[in-house]
Amino acid sequence: MASSSSSGITFKLHPLVIVNISDHYTRLKAQTLHSGESSSCAPPSNGGTAGSAPPAPPRVFGCVIGVQRGRTVEIFNSFELLFDSKTHTLDRAFLEKKQELYKKVFPTFYILGWYSTGSDVEEADMLIHRSLMDINENPIYVLLNPAIIHSQKDLPISIYETELHVIDGNPQLIFVKSSYNIETVEAERISVDHVAHLKPSDGGSAATQLAAHLTGIHSAIKMLNSRVRVLHQYLVAMQRGEIPLDNSLLRQVLSLLRRLPAIESEKFQDEFLMEFNDTLLMTYLAMFTNCTGTMNDVVEKFNIAYDRHSRRGGRTAFI
Amino acid sequence: MAAAMETVESLVAHIQALTKPEDVAQLHSLLKQSQSDEALRSQGPHLAPLLADLDPAKHSLGYLYLLDTYLSSSISREQVAAFLPSIARFLNTCSAYHIRFASDKFISVCRCFKDQVMRQQTPIQGIIPLRSAVQKLQNSSEQLTTLHSDFLLLCLLAKCYKPSLCILENDIFEAENPKDLFLFYYYGGMIYIGLKRFSKALECLHNVFTSPMANLNAIAIEAYKKYILVSLIHSGQVPPFPKYTSATAQRNLKNYAQAYLDLTTAYATGKHSEIEACIQQHIEKFQSDNNLGLVKQVLSSLSKRNIQRLTQTYLTLSLQDISNSVQLNGSKEAELHVLHMIQDGEIHATINQKDGMVIFHEDPEEYKTCQMVNQMDLSIQRLMSLSKKLTAIDEHISCDPAYLTKIGRERTRYEFDDFDSVPPKYL
């Protein structure tokens, strides 16, 4: 039902929208799970099934707003909508009230479309889509896949447009997938960084901050190392003749290598090695202290356990 | 008699036949069985020619059994002396895998070898074979065997210290017999003193008298006496007993080392005359303990100590002043002393010969070379492995019933509903 779009419109998605959708979904999921548990507290009759399967996670619905300038559609924000599951329509009055409120704060933003969660587009979505067409003649549909697939590296977000295609002689609207880019404002970058790294809220002590900082550096270096290794293997294979020579790639590798070393002078070496040795000495000192502490514990325990004339009473171990 | 000879010959044939690694267990059981019946032992003195048939490298286990029987039977000293080269050859070429099946026999063979070598007053003969024996008997370089102390004893008697270094430099983590440990570290300390590596000597001697002991033993006393002398030479003072010294040692050692403690107090005054008087007073004691040489070194180290003290006060000093404050005979002697100390790396200074001034410097090490990086890296690695071992020991002790019982008894004084981490079965 979905094929790639050819409308030539570029979409720019802000992270705020993604966070909003996922937040909405998580909240609702937590609420239904909680209410599902409290209702199934009553013992099952006849000791039937061991336990009911958790209720299927609900779909959430909402509206996305943003700006359209020419061929670029920039989606800035989103808000939630009430969905009437019996009539499969969105609550119109609510939508309009919300739209008015948002218009007051963000005069430039228009309703660009709507969002929902799920793994793929469904038939019922077309109805909702059509109902929005009177606000925006070409609304967009943002779909978030809440299933966590660890092997998948891309964002589980897809943006769909509608196109009029002639199928079996009937002109029909079908959803077509479009590509999008992520666009961030400075404030969004900071918040995403914060969420990604889960730094302690009060800034933490110096130790945790240092540990977090070093972990970051460690993962960065690990990634660099693995990439250099890939390049190295590639070059070795090329040398052995297993892979055909690619001169443009070789030129790029050469330019990369020419960039190192950045500084080469005796004074730099001296200073660098001095700092390096200082850090090593600090590590050595830390290890020493650690070892001495352990040694002290061992000696105390040994004295308590095996010394025949140990001190009775008075000295008790720390609880 | 003939029957006995036959069994022995059949045994030899078996030994020669079963040479593959899988057969060793079988061979071992066979040999153990033959050991128990009298036939082999009665043939003891006549086993010599049979041994010539066997190859020590391939038939190590069989060779070992026969050799042990031969040596423990009633043979004369000359026969043993004649056999010495073959024993040496055996020790050098035997296979470690075979030996470990019958380690007690191996140890008795080596003992016999060592006794013979000492009787002949040629300890130097025994050094290389015993060293290879030690290396073969060890399961890992961290294990102490009974042969270690024998080996070190031979090195000391022969005054050949270099071969022992490769054995001494390994850190020991496992030991079976406390006496072995004491002897090993005592001899090790003496070897390091002979090599003038006083800091390592201090470590070894320290290990002797701080080992856990229920009753005082003579080795610890002697080690403590030497320890006092060496620490006076090395750092000018004797450190107090560390926390992990056993209570027995702490209470009783000082009673036996009174002369040495007097020397310590005399040394602290820093005056030659005081120390010499003290030495004269206790000279018989020092001589009977064979420590007179060390005591004389203590005396000569006094001037070094005083010169070092001068570096902390002055930046430059004339040679005449040095000789005055350190009570030396003239500036020439002072110059000689300072030169030696600079060469040994004990102080950092330059001597200006034109006006006879000595300028003291700071440690010029600036820690900016790659060698320093390597050195630090090695030290850190060593420390990490040591730390792992320590945490393992810590856990082990925490689960030890003796420890838990003692802790549990002290815990019962708390309230009933207190968090009690010791299970009641230990109370």
What structural class do you assign from the helix and strand content of chain B?
mainly alpha
Estimate the global geometry of chain B from the Cα principal axes.
globular
Radius of gyration of chain B: 29 Å
Note the main sheet of chain A. 8 strands, mixed
Biggest chain pair interface: A-B, 37 and 37 residues
How many strands, which pairing sense, and closed or not: the largest β-sheet of chain B?
Answer: 3 strands, antiparallel
| Helix coverage percent of chain A | 40-55%
Number of strands of chain A: 10
Which stretches of chain B are low in confidence, meaning pLDDT under 50 for 5 or more residues running? none
Tell me the strand order in the biggest sheet of chain A: 9-8-7-6-2-3-1-10
Structural class of chain A: alpha/beta
H/E element order of chain B: HHHHHHHHHEHHEHHHHHHHHEHHEEHH
Assembly category: heterodimer
Provide the residue-averaged pLDDT of chain B: 81
> Roughly what fraction of the amino acids of chain A lie in strands?
15-25%
Strand portion of chain B: under 5%
Radius of gyration of chain A: 31 Å
Shape of chain A: extended
How many β-strand runs of chain B? 5
From the N-terminal CA to the C-terminal CA of chain A, the straight-line distance is: 67 Å
Can you walk me through this structure?
The complex is a heterodimer of chains A (319) and B (427). With 319 residues, chain A is an alpha/beta fold. Helix content of chain A is 46%, strand content 19%. Chain A contains seven helices and ten strands. Chain A has an eight-stranded mixed sheet with strand order 9-8-7-6-2-3-1-10. A two-stranded antiparallel ribbon of chain A has the order 4-5. In chain A, a hairpin with a 2-residue loop joins strand 8 (157-167) and strand 9 (170-178). By secondary structure, chain B is mainly alpha-helical. In chain B, helix 9 (127-137) runs antiparallel to helix 10, helix 12 (178-194) runs antiparallel to helix 13 (198-210) and helix 16 packs antiparallel against helix 17. The longest helix of chain B has 29 residues, at 370-398.
